[in-house]
Amino acid sequence: MHATERTGSIPGSYRPADAERWAPEPDKRPGRTAFQRDRARVLHSAALRRLAGKTQVVPAAPDSDRAASSDGWDASPRTRLTHSLECAQVGRELGAALGCDADLVEMACLAHDLGHPPFGHNGERELSRIAEPCGGFEGNAQSLRLLTRLEPKRFVDGPHGPVSVGLNLTRAALDAATKYPWHRDESPHDPDSPKFGVYEDDVPVFAWFRLGAPADRTCFEAQVMDWADDVAYSVHDVEDGLHAGYLAPAALTSPSERQEVLDAALARYASDAEPDELAEALDRLLEQDWWPHDYDGTALAQARLKDAASQLIGRFCLAAERATHAAYGTAHLTRYAAELVVPRRARLECAVLKAVADRYVMQRPDQARLRAEQREILAELADALSLRAPEGLDPQFRALYAAAADDSGRLRVLVDQIAALTDASARRLHGQLTGRPTGG
Predict the structure, then answer these.
(1) Residue 89 near residue 17 (C-beta atoms within 8 A)
(2) What does the alpha-carbon distance between residue 188 and residue 197 come to, in Å, rounded to a whole number?
(3) 423 — pLDDT class (breaks 50, 70, 90)
(4) For residues 318 and 388, is the Cβ–Cβ distance under 8 A?
(5) Contact at 8 Å (CB) between 158 and 152?
(6) Per residue in 311-335, pLDDT tens?
(7) Number of C-beta neighbours around residue 209 at 10 A
(8) What is the pLDDT at residue 159?
(9) Contact of 224 with 100, CB cutoff 8 Å
(10) How far is it, in rounded angstroms, from Cα 123 to Cα 140?
(11) Where do the structural domains in the chain lie, given as residue ranges?
């Protein structure tokens, strides 16, 4: 392993080392760039398809609820998959405008949520508790594990037989998909942050693709992916909340509800802001002609809401594009040649949108009960699988469990198995193993 691949063409101003793969392999079809191959591998992965069964923010209503509704309206809320596709479109266009390879940025956006477990961030927190003896759980570190180990695509000979190298992406691709290039409890920005990008047993490949990278800096493509993610989910979570009827636009003019939104923004999304700054950011959005001041679900209202979403995405992306060009010029900006510049006004407006979704969608009274049930499902599932391992695991994880060197390694495999489940399959497997079916 570690040999270089230099047969695929290298786009733009990227270096040959950026196109190296952990395990060398020949091109199947001449003429494709290395990053086109990377994008195709993520797009065709089972891990990406599984995101269709993982909730983004608004859960899809069970069929029984839809059938019982008065009008049969199905708002078709976003899943992790549709969010990833929309994030990829936003990131591809912004990256291309800044001189990045568009396929590389799109690949990073498609890959950014692959490691998310069932039940979203609630599931992530419960799996972190379960996985504490083996180093915790973090969705971004799990994404790296999928890309480099768990997603079946390429195998190489190891000392004890064939070893999976996951999708065997290029060095630049793995770097672009890594939001948090540091170990657990080593965030350079916030010592208390639970975010990290690599588990201890995945350090070798992490060290390989980060070779020569400035310590603790994310590459430019990863910064574009990160902003595209923020833009996509802040805008679309509010859109889904309106579609689902959880948010009445007029609520944002109520002094008490407005204050709750601003408090959430300050507490969770913009802790460095002044309250007046956040109030001004909210006012700027409410003052726009295209802001959805009312919504009744009609075709006209839907079109206006879709226009508002497009206006917001354009507003946030153009702000970053113009500010970054102003700082670095119009040359191709790639890898570590620049930092993405997002104006403070845009960041605070984005934070306010996140807080709107937080207040009206995530903090609904029924959500607390649902989250408690979801944590119970994952905890009982971990216990049940542990008692039945390795026979009770899927064949892929059964083999990994048998090959694990110690209890820590075996627990990590159990967590890998649970993280791969969709929301529905987690409930179904829990019911099968415990004999207690749970609702959807």
Answers:
(1) no
(2) 13
(3) very high
(4) no
(5) no
(6) 999 999 999 999 999 999 988 999 9
(7) 26
(8) 76
(9) yes
(10) 14
(11) 33-54+72-210, 220-364, 367-434
Secondary structure (DSSP) of 94-156: HHHHTT--HHHHHHHHHHTTTT--TTHHHHHHHHHHHTGGGT---HHHHHHHIIIIIS-S-EE
- CA–CA separation, 291 vs 275, rounded Å? 22
What is the token pair recorded at 48? 């990406």
What burial class does residue 351 get, using C-beta atoms within 10 Å of its C-beta: 0-12 exposed, 13-18 middle, 19+ buried? buried
Is the distance from CB of 287 to CB of 253 less than 8 angstroms? Answer: no
- Tell me the C-alpha distance between 360 and 59, whole Å: 14
The identity of residue 323, as a single letter, is A
SS3 of residue 225 by DSSP:
helix
CA distance 45 to 53: 14
Question: What DSSP designation does 33 have?
Answer: B
- The whole-angstrom separation of Cα 12 and Cα 282 is 40
Q: What is the dihedral of CA 414, 419, 421, 424, to 10 degrees?
A: 120
Residue with tokens 């709750």: 260
Q: Please give the structure tokens belonging to residue 207.
A: 């060290």
What whole-number percentage of the chain has pLDDT above 70?
92
CA 411, 417, 423, 428 dihedral sign is: negative
CB 385 within 8 A of CB 392: yes
What are 244's two structure tokens?
């689902």
Domain 33-54+72-210 has CATH 1.10.3210.10: yes
Q: Beta strands 155-158 and 161-164: pairing type?
A: antiparallel
**Measured distance CA(311)–CA(327) in Å, rounded:** 24
Tokens of 233: 């989910």
